[in-house]
Structures are given as structure tokens and as C-alpha cells.
Amino acid sequence: MSKNAIYPGTFDPITFGHIDVIKKSLKLFSKIIVAVSNGENKDYLFNSSERIEIIKKALFFDLKLSKKKIEVISFSSLTTDLCRKYKSNIILRGLRAVSDFEYEFQLAGMNRKLNNNIETLFLMSDVENQIISSKFVKEIVKLKGDIKKFTTKSTIKSLKEKYD
């Protein structure tokens, strides 16, 4: 099988929930493009180049995942344009809870209207990671809480440096 899949998101920062989705998708696709959104409508803790470095350290240094099967990029275009650029008709999205579904369903529908060759594949992280969100991870670390159950060592280091 020679198929690329696009996994777009903010990843501010990457969590074990995101990593679950990546690991599961590696079993299904030849290559995963982790696409870090550089959109200007969000207030990010880390800029896109910082997020890319954090993701690379988490995936390739902490977890020793294959650089041949994962590419980490930044993008500020439509996700459907990114699919065309990387010759993919698959967009990966993670679902944590039912509350995620309505937004993700609308997003998948809009992407399908933009390009009817695009399919969105929803993957759920393992049960122990479904409660994790980047927002909560940032709040916990800001209040000096322990986040080792939520993200990798190098990501924790980056977060602590940001808040110190």
C-alpha cells in the first residue's frame, strides 16, 4: 500500500491523544503528514516552528518513531489544498468524546464539498488518553501540576521552559 494521509491540527502542544492517532494511522497508511496549522485565528502558546520542533522531538527522539513514515510540516492553506499537494485523499481526525463529533462532522462535510475525492477518517485514541486536551495540559503545567501522563518528556520540558 502506498498511501499518504494528512493529520492536520494545531498540536499546541502535542499530547498522548495525538500520538495515539498517529500510531494507529501508521498501521493503515504508508506515510503520515502531520500538518501543523499556522492559522492566525487562534492564540497559540507556541509558534508553528516551535510546535514542529516539539512534535519532531516527541515522535523521533522520545518515541523513536520512523522518520521515513512521518513528515511534520507547517501549513496555512485549506486542508484540501494540502491533500492535493501531498497526493492524499485522506484526512485523519482524532475524536475524544461525543462533544468533538459535531464540529468534526461539519468540518469533514465542508472538506468533502471542497473536494469530493477527500475522505475523513476518524480515529479514537485509547481510553486512557481520551480525556487529554492540549488546553488542559497547558493549564495544568501553568499551575505547576504534573503532566507526565499526558505528553512526552521533551514536550514537558518545552512547556516548563515556556512558563518559567
Please list the strands of the largest sheet in the order they lie side by side: 1-2-3
Order of helices and strands: EHEHEHEHEHH
Write down the overall geometry: globular
From the alpha carbons, calculate the radius of gyration and give it in angstroms. Answer: 15 Å
What's the number of domains? 1
The first-level CATH class is given as Alpha Beta
CATH T-level fold name = Rossmann fold
Q: What class do helices, strands and sheet pairing give? A: alpha/beta
Oligomer: single chain
Mean pLDDT: 94
Task: Give the percentage of residues in beta strands.
Answer: 15-25%
Q: Alpha-carbon distance between the termini? A: 46 Å
Total strands: the figure is 5
Total helices: the number is: 6
The CATH homologous superfamily is called HUPs
Helix content: 40-55%
Low-confidence spans: pLDDT under 50, at least 5 residues? none
Task: Provide a brief overview of the structure.
The chain is α/β, with parallel strands linked by helices and 164 residues long. It has helices spanning 16-26, 48-62, 79-85, 98-114, 134-142, 153-163, and strands at 4-9, 31-37, 70-75, 90-95, 119-124. 43% of the residues lie in helices and 19% in strands.
Question: Keywords for this structure?
Answer:
19% strand; three-stranded parallel β-sheet; two-stranded parallel ribbon; alpha/beta
